[in-house]
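Q: Here's a chain of 276 amino acids. Please give me its 3D structure as tokens.
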Amino acid sequence: MKMRDTLFAFAALLAFGAQPAGAQDKSTWDTIMETKKVRAGCVNGEPFGFKDPATGEWKGIVPAFAALVAQELEVDWECVETTWGNAIAGLQADQFDFVGGLDATPQRALAIDFADGTLVYYATAILARKDLAVENWSDLNKPDITAGVPMGTAADRALTQMLDQAEFLRSKGNPEAVAAFASGRTDFVSGSSVWLIMQNHALGNQGKIVVPKPAMIATADVGVRKEADRRWRDWLSVALNYFYWRGSIKQAYEDYLRFRGIDPEDAPGIRLEELR
């Protein structure tokens, strides 16, 4: 083969390899239309997902959203179990068609796409002693306050800057941080509002959930594979906004809270206007 032909073949190979993930294969939209099934990446992490160990049945925000999507498309749906740490790789490997509850971050957007819209808004909150008077973050910035945070998390970084007068007990992970609060070694533990409501319930409502002001709000979103064919992402974006603004996702959240024996009136909301 001549050098010119070799270079041409090499360039063609590079161009083919540089196509977006899924460009060489059947698109997600075409696959769903042919198989008549939507596969949701579901994490066993409340309130986004909960897999009943006895029946294998899934409940929570993401399974409920998958059911709504499937109803509109007139197809079936299923949960494919994953973890937060493996969700992006699972999408890239075509193990499921979307995963709900992922925060859309610049780093994640390098690897996957996100549907336009928000599944859940949540705030950085605290699970605090019931007798702890707190309305603003500044109320916690005192030497006699001990804050509990998982080491190296976003909450750790943010609170370290804001609460420079408080003491900190940094734990290895979320379970250890909750255990430190339950044992009275900390005055509060910080984390996402939707996660902490489940932790307080598990502790028998030992504490209270507070979203201190000014509220630090983030989003949990819906991730999809990067593809040349944008029909699935575009349609899912419309569906996500449709269900959000019509209250269907809020209803799914409240239904799950009731399933777990939690009064929605006692829980932080998941809509932006409820957290501001």
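Q: Can you summarize the key feature?
A: Confidence is low (pLDDT under 50) at residues 1-24.
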